[in-house]
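Minutes, project check-in

Agenda point 3 was the complex the collaborators sent over. CS summarized: three entities, 846 residues total, and the question is how they sit relative to each other. Sequences were read into the notes so everyone works from the same version.
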Amino acid sequence: MTDSLEAIGITVRYGGNVAVDGIDVAVPAGRMVGMVGANGAGKSTLINAIAGWSRGTPVVRGEVRLAGQKMDGLPPHRRAERGLVLVPEGKGIFAELTVMENLALVRPPADTRGRHAFSMDDIFTLFPRLAERRGHKGRMLSGGERQMVAVSRALRAAPAVLLLDEPSAGLAPRLVHELLTTMRGLVDRGLSLLLVEQNARATLELVDELYLLERGKVVAREAASDMKDDPRILEAYLGNLTA
Amino acid sequence: MMARLSAPLALALAALAYFIPAVSGGAPVVYAACTTIAILAVMAYGADLILSYLGEVSLGHTIFWATGGYAASMLAVNYGWNGWATAAAAIVAAVVLACVLGLVTLRTREFVFSLVTYAAAVVAMEVAFNWSFLGGSDGIVGVPPLVLTIFGWGVSGAANTDLWPIAWLLLMATLLFIHRFRRSRLGTSALMVQMNPDLATALGVDARRVRLAVFVTSAPISALAGWLYAYQRAYVGPDMFESYFLVLMLTAIVIIGRRLLLGPLIGTALIIVQQTFFSIGGDGDKIILGAVLAAILLLWPKGLIGLWDVAARRLRSSA
Amino acid sequence: MNLTQQVINGLVLGSGYALVAIGWTVLLGAARLVNFAHGQLYMLAAFLAWAAMQKLGVSYFVAVPLSVLALGLLGVALQGMMQRLVMQQNLTSLMIVTLGFGYVIQGSAARIFGGDPQTFASPLEKASVHLGELWFTWQDVVTLVGTLLLFGVLWLVLNRTRLGALVRSVAEDPKLAQLFGINAAQVYIGVFVFECAAVALGAGLVAPRSPILASMGFDEVILTFVVVVLGGIGSVGGSLLAGFGLGMFTALFGALVSPAYTTAAAFLVLLTVLVVRPGGLAAR
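CS then shared the predicted structure for the full assembly.
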């Protein structure tokens, strides 16, 4: 199977600190890859580096390929244009813009080969709640609604690979389950997805493959089905995370 | 690097500096240039406290500069006060004005702070220009020679050769003060407020108080420069508010690099040497000054010292 | 004193303040960039239009659009130079850089156009309207109507179009905008070009009221900054209101108290507001 996304030897430095240390990640087409680890393990830094984005000024090394095309060196808006779309952790939408304005900011590409286009109708079918809230400003929305807008915005960009950074942060467990199940549904229809999560147990249920990160390095990488059957791994790596 | 300069070496350098005009031929134009450099550098050090250590841009330091000049000339011309008295008055007036402006702008930050200080300078100029008490548009002419005596020994005079020792002394005192300030509690708190306001608050530093204190501390420095400038020119007018002095202060501070003890002095010296000996006309000099200011920040935001760092790193990596 | 006449004067003055300020308001809101060369750009625009009339012999109605175009192009060049600092949002350095630009523009203008005051004449300035005791010129009418139109169109564009949403998104969070596929750098250039073109239009309509001088810089437009801060940083409607309010204030203060101290008085009003509401009147 071909890999939609390939990141090789990603290293991220902040000042003198190495936050991510030579990590390789591959997301096969139509698969959902999860990445879990404790706070500060470098998950967000890694996924941001893959998108070429950061709020700070990190120094990033390594290669990123999207369907074989080189992405490293491109600014984040160029990567988004080519289908490498990130939903960042925390604030993912504009508070001063309405739901419709947020979604309309994105220009869907003319050429959607190898990508997954979503019309506005598709979006409102996925998240009926947003149709009701379309005229409301971002700051009037609940946390769950904001996350829906953030994900919808990414889908409007017709992603080839979707990068999702901790969508569950600050959401009620029921909403997390709903959102992640919706995402799994999209993967089953062909979308490639890289999911960074703190909530390891929920992630394990849904992903095809799981990476465990610790202090900027991958310490385990296995098919999710194998991890499920391996209580020692669960114990060793996940017990403390879900406690 | 600067911090490791030992006291004897600093003293030796200071003494050497005193003889620069004499060694350079002792022509009146050299004395004039050196005196002007010393005065304008002291003016720049006032603004330097704000820009380098608070990280804010005060565009109102021409007010304090002019306050010093007006205090000296008015009291010397109208009441015949001697140099010590006019200097004390300049300091007091600047501190009072700085308290008022500092309190008003206490809650403003970044560009609003800069805008308000700038507008304050424009308004101060308008007041000076229209108020006959301050001499109006003509300013105050006929400032008598400066008389400064202590225990019978002293200096008096109006020529640059007479004023140079005082300008030199003022500059050295300012440098010593800035050096002390950098190590003082206030100086370190100011840097902390600039670099990491959250940490500063967590450590119990009241950011507003620090900002006000630094602002008020900086004002008399620029005022004393204006005080001496009044005696050097024997005339004070609304032109002391002109943006020339503002642009000069800022350029002098950023050209070498912020937070360097000798930065503003070297910067001022470069500018005045260009304008005195390599001038291409008043408007041309304006273009040079403005272009240098913009170019430095656009190309080497850390100042020329940043270039030095780059060169040093290249040398080290190639060695 | 005729109160109605003073109200008319206030409206005319106020529309001028608002018009000269609008580019800056948008720039501040979208890029958080304080342009201290604003006054020199105003001066340059007035001189370019004047020079076009004198040297090329074109009419006022051609000269003003030409100067708007020229300033727009200058805007591209200036923003191009500042791009790196704007993207880093290094606001302190940017303020000082624009101060340097202003100084360069001032020195260059003095070299090119000379140091003497010039008359930048608009034919509309000579065509006046008398209604009983009231008096105003067609230039006043055009300035007032033009300002209202420009503000109306600008409001619609900012609040009702995708382009406006683009500008507002970059204003709120330029980093996040990148993830939406937006090139923030382009938006910054667009906004800066608008600022330069708008101040040129303002100069075209307002500058003919008095002789123009190469040394008139920020002081000439100092009141626009009162408008910008009073109206609330980046608020288009707020600037219009603040512009008219300030126009009324200066007209009445000038007529009733003292014309020499109007700027100082307007500034005192601003200081009072800032002490009470540091974010300006329109701040939430």
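Noted in discussion: The mean pLDDT of chain C is 89.
Follow-up: revisit at the next meeting once the mutant set is ready.
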